[in-house]
Amino acid sequence: MTPRLDAISIITADLAASLAFYRRLGLDIPEGAESAPHVEVTLPGGQRLLWDTEAVIASFDPAWQRPSGGERLGLAFACDDPEEVDTLYAELTGAGYTGHLKPWDAVWGQRYAVVLDPDGCGVSLFAPASPAVK
Q1: Contact 58/68 with Cβ under 8 angstroms?
Q2: Which phi and psi angles does 16 have, rounded to 5°?
Q3: Has this prediction a pTM greater than 0.90?
Q4: Three-class DSSP category at 17
Q5: For 48-81, how does the pLDDT look when each residue is reduced to its tens digit (9 = 90+)?
Q6: Which positions ≥6 away from 17 have C-beta within 8 Å?
């Protein structure tokens, strides 16, 4: 038997704020999910993204503490083109989310930006820096 990655989990201090952020990135999160202590969505390809409140984690792991210091998890969202990276970054920061790295043309050939989710996790936005030749 070979283990396979099935889910990625986000532990959040404010479930409603976290779900609102990820909805803005296009994830189909059911309305009303904010009232649950645990939320799951199935992503294209079948993997799942999970959210748990800090209280849920502490309920089964009493020694758990909110991480301090650097990031523990980073997510990346592919955009169709460089303009979408710029537009999405502007929309998110305009809505009050913290920009970490303004859009820039990375040396590895991508338009790249990073916005922090409500719990301070870096969320990368990227697209090929120039359109693919057809």
Answers
A1: no
A2: -60, -45
A3: no
A4: helix
A5: 999 999 999 999 888 888 888 766 678 889 999 9
A6: 118
